[in-house]
Design brief:
The chain has three domains: about 15-75 and about 100-160 and about 250-300, FAD/NAD(P)-binding domain (3-Layer(bba) Sandwich), CATH 3.50.50.60; about 165-245, Alpha-Beta Plaits (2-Layer Sandwich); about 355-410, no CATH class. It has nine helices and 24 strands. It has helices at about 25-35, 55-65, 70-75, 100-115, 215-230, 275-295, 300-330, 340-345, 395-410, and strands at about 15-20, 40-45, 50-55, 75-85, 90-100, 115-120, 125, 130, 135-145, 160, 165-175, 180-185, 190-195, 200-210, 235-240, 245, 250, 260, 270, 360-370, 375-380, 385-390, 390, 395. Helix 1 (about 25-35) packs parallel to helix 4 (about 100-115) and helix 6 packs antiparallel against helix 7. The radius of gyration is 22 Å and the shape is globular. This is Pilus assembly protein CpaD. It comes from Paracoccus tegillarcae. InterPro entries: FAD/NAD-bd_sf, Geranylgeranyl_reductase.
């Protein structure tokens, strides 16, 4: 007989789900849980922190399919991307730039409209409960930690990369030149500039957290802009209010407590080189949603063990692979690998290659998500995907592998 998770009733002082952190990962998780009819508390201070970020095509496509995408609400603009990576100047790609504060507000509002209770506060997670900053204690079956990089700082086994900061500021450029973005590597770090159609823009400089010269953030940003000036459009002014935030890459450690699940940057924080960070944050919310739904249906020992194995796969296979992809992109900046900033990041998280020459294409069983729930299924292991491929589009990779193998055997 299946053991079903008891859901809170309207009169209870409990929630089925409490989400700490209202960024993209936390808000998407709360939105999905509320749409499933669960009593959801989304806890976030709702501070407005203006900045511009890139949104990957994969995340935009998913948001369009699910009805979350509203370009006006999130200030989305398609921009041509110019990159000068390792001396190879290209201007053939484009990226979507969004107003991050507007994106966060929009996703929190969508969760609220779906039925989640938005609580403007902050707190700390614990088994089955959340302690709010105002001392109130809330109880819930599932506690979701989506507080970002700071959530994992007390985790002893977290693997933190070189201490990194991102210094951002609003800028004003020439009008009438169209929307665009620029990625510029520098000796001391790298710079990203985004320009909207009206000439307003945002600059972000990623650097070592410690500056051996003892410069202020303002001085460091101006030094970076001066070093990149010949490769950037003319910047007429830089706003005085700087945003300095932690950008240290972090690989969190898996927890055996399924009642407190870390998602987004609390689980794994990528180097903020592109919009892939947002994509993987939302991806972690989707995988945690599959865990929640599965445990709601049945909570026997076998299912609990399967859920733990699934989350362990993410921490041991998926997240490190993403970090290694970023590492290899850093290593492609060969002209600067002798410099301290680049040298340190070329070593994180390890020296394990992306492709494994010890793996030949074969079938293996792994825990995957199918129809929104966890299940054990066959996947295809390959040198370039040693953790396994479950799907190719809408088709099972194992079925395609068998069909291809049968054709070779004839």
């Amino acid at each position: 007989m299946r053991k079903l998770v008891r859901m809170a009733k309207p009169g209870d002082q409990e929630f089925d789900v409490i989400v700490l952190g209202g960024g993209p990962a936390g808000s998407v998780f709360a939105w999905l849980a509320a749409r499933d009819g669960r009593r959801v508390a989304l806890v976030d201070p709702c501070r407005v922190v203006p900045r511009t970020e890139g949104l990957s095509p994969r995340l935009r496509d998913w948001m369009q399919r699910t009805g979350l995408y509203d370009p006006q609400a999130i200030g989305a603009v398609e921009a041509r991307r110019t990159s000068d990576w390792n001396g190879n100047a290209t201007a053939i790609n484009s990226e979507l730039i969004v107003d991050r504060a507007a994106l966060d507000h929009h996703l929190r509002d969508m969760a609220r409209r779906a039925g989640a209770t938005l609580i403007r506060d902050s707190g700390a997670p614990g088994p089955g409960q959340v302690q709010l900053a105002g001392q109130k204690v809330m109880h819930g079956r599932f506690i979701i930690d989506a507080r970002g990089r700071r959530a994992g700082q007390g985790t002893r086994r977290s693997h933190r990369g070189p201490a990194t900061i991102a210094i951002g500021a609003g800028v004003q450029l020439e009008t009438g030149q169209g929307a665009g973005t620029w990625v510029i590597p520098l000796d001391q770090g790298w710079l990203w500039l985004a320009r909207r159609d009206d000439g307003s823009g945002w600059v972000q400089l990623v650097l070592d957290a410690a500056d051996p010269m003892g410069q202020s953030p303002d001085q460091r940003l101006r030094s970076g802009l001066e070093a990149a000036a010949e490769r950037l459009p003319v910047i007429h002014s830089v706003h005085q209010d700087l945003l300095v935030r932690d950008a240290t890459p972090v690989l969190g450690a898996p927890s055996d407590d399924l009642g407190v699940m870390a998602i987004g940057d609390a689980a794994s924080a990528m180097d903020p080189l592109s919009g892939h960070g947002l994509f993987w944050a939302v991806s972690s919310a989707l995988t945690a949603t599959a865990v929640r739904r599965t445990l709601e249906q049945r909570e026997d020992a076998e299912t609990v063990a399967m859920a733990r194995r699934f989350l362990r796969q993410r921490h041991e296979d998926v997240y490190p692979r993403q970090a290694r992809l970023g590492r290899d992109f850093i290593r492609s900046q060969t002209a600067r690998l002798h410099l301290p900033f680049w040298q340190r990041r070329a070593a994180f998280p390890d020296d394990i290659p992306i492709a494994s020459d010890r793996i030949t294409s074969s079938l293996a069983r792994r825990i995957i998500v199918e129809n929104g729930l966890l299940t054990a299924a066959e996947v295809v292991l390959t040198p370039h995907a040693p953790a396994g491929v479950a799907w190719v589009g809408t088709q099972k990779a194992a079925d395609l592998f068998r069909a291809a193998s049968a054709g070779r055997d004839r």
